[in-house]
Amino acid sequence: MKFVLSLIASLIVFSGILFNESFAEISENQAFLLEGSGFAVIEDQIKFTEIDIGLSSQEQRGSTINFTIEDGFVTLDEEEFIISELEGKFLREGRYIRINGSIENSNGIENTISFFGRLVAESKDASVYGFTGRINTLDDTYKIIYTAKLSSLSKIDLTPTSEESNELTIRIIRGSSLQGGSDSYIDATSTGSVRLGYFSTDRISVEPGTTITIVNDDVVSHSILSGKENYGDRHNPFVPDGRISTGNIEPGNSVKITFDNSGFYRLYDPDFPWMKIVAYVFPNSDSLVLGKGQNLGN
């Protein structure tokens, strides 16, 4: 097992050397997703592990950009840990990523993680990092090896509704009130079936001040609130935060909502809590090409 771990670690290091001229692209004050998987190892077992977090970059200070981790989870096999108190940094203008802090299991017990990632490759719309580190639970300390993708949340193309205005429309899919029974919940493709949500899109990225239209194509009325997930409470899975409240949207009707402030909005239907949308609301800003920025002395 030690040989296998050494080989995997060597491949990650070699990949970092091979692609040391790669430059990821990141913007200040913008939202990103970090999605990856790999293995968590202790002496007598290896578990499959995933990471899926949303984060927002802050102002650059020298060659370091701090980021705030807004939401997400880490898994160990079937066990899921939600984000509790995590902080992170892009180091050397994005060549490296450091993540430290606490995650919480389903019983509310805090555990800690410490991850360090190296940029190994990039494309026009995403970057790949190799991560090593630890997940510390009450019982064990797992060594982790991840391959993870960092992707910027691109702006959704607005559909012109007239010569004077643009409008983004999200539709509530017919049958969404029946969990798992939406007409478009499973989309059969040539390569298999793809799981869809209960809306025409369930993840959007827009600028502050953007107004969107929600159209109810279902056969029952819906209402949309914004709030935070109340993890572990099946009967009351969300706590409203008062920022968005549409009131009832009858079948065939629509309503407009405006995202006034920057941040992460989690939208949900209180009567059908499996229906939810994540909105990443951040100003559009010029991109900084990591690895080519100015070193300001920090």
Q: Can you describe what's shown?
A:
The radius of gyration is 21 Å and the shape is globular. It has two domains: 2-154, Porin (Beta Barrel), CATH 2.40.160; 159-281, Immunoglobulin-like (Sandwich), CATH 2.60.40. An eight-stranded antiparallel barrel has the order 2-3-4-5-6-7-8-9. Helices cover 6% and strands 56% of the residues. A hairpin with a 4-residue loop joins strand 8 and strand 9 (141-152). It has one helix at 2-18, and strands at residues 25-26, 31-42, 45-61, 64-76, 79-91, 96-104, 110-122, 126-136, 141-152, 159-160, 166-172, 186-189, 192-195, 203-206, 210-216, 225-229, 238-245, 254-259, 263-269, 272-281, 288-289. The chain has one helix and 21 strands. It is mainly beta.
Provide tags for this entry:
Immunoglobulin-like, globular, eight-stranded antiparallel barrel, 298 residues, disordered C terminus, Porin, mainly beta, 2 domains
Q: Can you summarize this structure?
A:
The protein folds into two domains: 153 residues, Porin (Beta Barrel), CATH 2.40.160; 123 residues, Cupredoxins -  blue copper proteins (Immunoglobulin-like, Sandwich).
Query: How big a fraction of the residues is strand?
Result: over 45%
Would you tell me which CATH topology of the largest domain applies? Porin
CATH class of the largest domain: Mainly Beta
Residue stretches low in confidence (pLDDT < 50, at least 5 long) are: 10-24, 155-165, 181-195, 285-298
Task: Lay out the secondary structure.
Layout: H1 2-18, E1 25-26, E2 31-42, E3 45-61, E4 64-76, E5 79-91, E6 96-104, E7 110-122, E8 126-136, E9 141-152, E10 159-160, E11 166-172, E12 186-189, E13 192-195, E14 203-206, E15 210-216, E16 225-229, E17 238-245, E18 254-259, E19 263-269, E20 272-281, E21 288-289
Parallel strand pairs: 11-15, 14-20
Antiparallel strand pairs: 1-21, 2-3, 2-9, 3-4, 4-5, 5-6, 6-7, 7-8, 8-9, 10-11, 12-13, 15-18, 16-17, 16-19, 19-20
